[in-house]
Fold:
Amino acid sequence: MRVLKMKKTELKAFGIIGGDKRQLFLAKSISDSCFDVTLGGFDKLTSLGAIEIADIKTAVSKSDAIIFPLPSICADGTLNTPFSDKKTRLSDDLIALLKDKPMFVAMKNKFLKEYPVLSNCQIYDYSAKEEFAVANALLTAEGAVNIAMNEYEGTIFGSKCLVCGFGRIGKMLAKMLKSLNADVTVSARNEVDFAYIDALGCKHINTNSLKSVKGYDLVFNTIPVMIFDGNLLMNTDRNTIIIDLASLPGGVDFEAAKRYKTDAVRALSLPGRTAPKAAGEIIRKTIFNIIKEVYR
Structure:
């Protein structure tokens, strides 16, 4: 059995609490690295090879470090446990068990807003690490192209695409679509981004000037602000497919999209849906890098 050191703590066993298929591949990857792994909050599973499946309290009790999923909690403050029919909050007993253990979470601010009693504990946000964000953006862009291929009756080759936003995902997506010989336009807000977009061989427009969306086959929104509200959707071609990649609350008014008969797809947590194995490995690498940084 391998041992990792983190401050004064020896880490031999990991508890993975909740999550989707990413966490199942994460568990396998950690187990294959010769650590003990216990899953908690996976009541719908009967087995996962040699990996133990237990209730959440047992998983926490048996582990030296705890890994929460991405996102770690739902909008109602319960743990993100899609493989369980139960809605679970961190009880006083669970919090008492967690206080002395390193915890790895995603979206730390939201986690601590719901459970401020844990604020002074060893909590590390793996989703905030740049290496995680870049690798995750690549998987998200790849998943978005996969959705487009399934939803669009034409081909990406030669299609007219609009990518809204030029953050990590927007950059990856624009480059990927361009490599597939799509006609790509990217919306951004500053001259530096415009220069990068031009260097990629794409066209650029100012996001603030989007008053209508005409002549595009596919639109990919990466901006987590309500860009495609009723007014913009009213001036969007009906045969355009909009794929919303933005984190909640998203950037598309889906009720308005229905009214205007616009084909809009909400595409959340794409790495967990389209590339869970790769996504799980990215989480493991990031967490193990954090452990090395803290120990160093």
About this structure: The longest strand covers residues 183-188.
